[in-house]
Design goal:
Blueprint (H helix, E strand, L loop, with lengths): L13 H4 L28 E6 L10 E5 L9
Antiparallel strand pairs: 1-2
């Protein structure tokens, strides 16, 4: 119920089933494209973009809302 018709769901197995974290050896470690990163998002996975007010957040023009292609739960 509600004007946006959104659902929140608790997933207690999230910690046990999620993808392992990438090892961080240094704050200056080089970018490794073989590990998960958001440059791998395909255009078909983008649901929509949220535009920010330019004066409030100058480094970012927009925020992507994307499909989770490997969800742990239905939906």
């Amino acid at each position: 119920p509600g004007p946006l018709r959104l659902v929140a769901q608790l997933n207690p197995q999230r910690a046990a089933l999620k993808r392992g974290a990438q090892p961080v050896r240094s704050l200056a470690q080089p970018f490794d494209p073989r590990h998960f990163n958001f440059t791998q998002i395909r255009p078909a996975e983008v649901l929509f973009r949220l535009r920010r007010a330019p004066a409030r957040h100058p480094p970012f023009e927009h925020v992507l809302v994307v499909i989770n292609v490997s969800p742990l739960e239905r939906g």
